[in-house]
Structures are given as C-alpha cells and as structure tokens.
Design a protein that fits this description.
Low-confidence stretches: none
Strand content: 5-15%
Distance between the termini: 39 Å
Number of strands: 4
Mean pLDDT: 82
Amino acid sequence: MAVIAMIAIMAAIAVAGYRRYMQWTKTAEGKDLVSAISAGQIRYFEDTEGYLDCSDTLTDYYPAAPNTQKRTFRNSGHPRSECWDLLGIDAQAPTYMGFITMAGVPAETPPTLPTTGTFAPDPGKPWFIVMGVGDIDNDSTFGYMSTTSFAPGDIAMVNEDE
C-alpha cells in the first residue's frame, strides 16, 4: 500500500513538472520570435536607415490574433504579410502568439505598451517596438513580451506564464 501511495505522489509531481515545462516552452518560443522580429528590424534599418511599420495598431496581430491554436508564423493571407516578409524571419515552428511591430520617425511618440509603459524616444532617431501577445492557458488573461529600438536586447514581460 505504501508503494502505491509513493507512486501516486511521484506521478502527481511529474504531471505538475510536465505542465510547467510545457508553459516554459511556449513562453520561450514567443521570446525567440520577439527577438527575431527585433533583429529583422535592425537588419532592415542597416539597409534602409528606417524601420518597418507592419502593424497599424497594438491589436493588428500577425500571423493572427492570439489564441490557444498553434499556427505557422508565415501568413500570406494577412493584409500586411509583405511588410512582415521584409523582416526576413525564418520561423519554422508554429506559434500560439500574435505579434505586432510598429515604427516611427524621430518626432513621433511611440504607443504605450502594457509591458513597459511610455518611452521617451531619442529626438534624433527613428524607433521601433515589437510585442508578442498570448493567452496560452486560455483563461482570457494575456501575457505580453516586448522589445524596442531603445533597448533591443532586452525583452520586458508581463504575465509571462499566460
């Protein structure tokens, strides 16, 4: 009887660990794509001295609005897919998240992000923002991760386990 109880306890611990691992992999996938989009913006800037504005609003998600369904990153049916293609993101794995990337000129103020608030742009430089949004556990609470041209190596996150 004691052996059965010990096996049940170990199974419960294993299931909880597996669920945490699955949440971590979904979060890591989103962070990787936010980094790839940021790198694409930087490469584009090196060629053109400007950033791409591929999202009209903070809810103009690519490849689609976030939900619990995995989908490929490339979406040729999206109205702004040509802009996203210019970023050169080679994402093979499907994603649960939706992404935005917006850009502006030096005098333009960037939008306020849920992850980091408002930015004070460098008055002499154009800017970009990248944000990934997901509801991985389908509880209507969204997780956000973002980066900007102001700190392109840093990814700010809110509700990262969502």
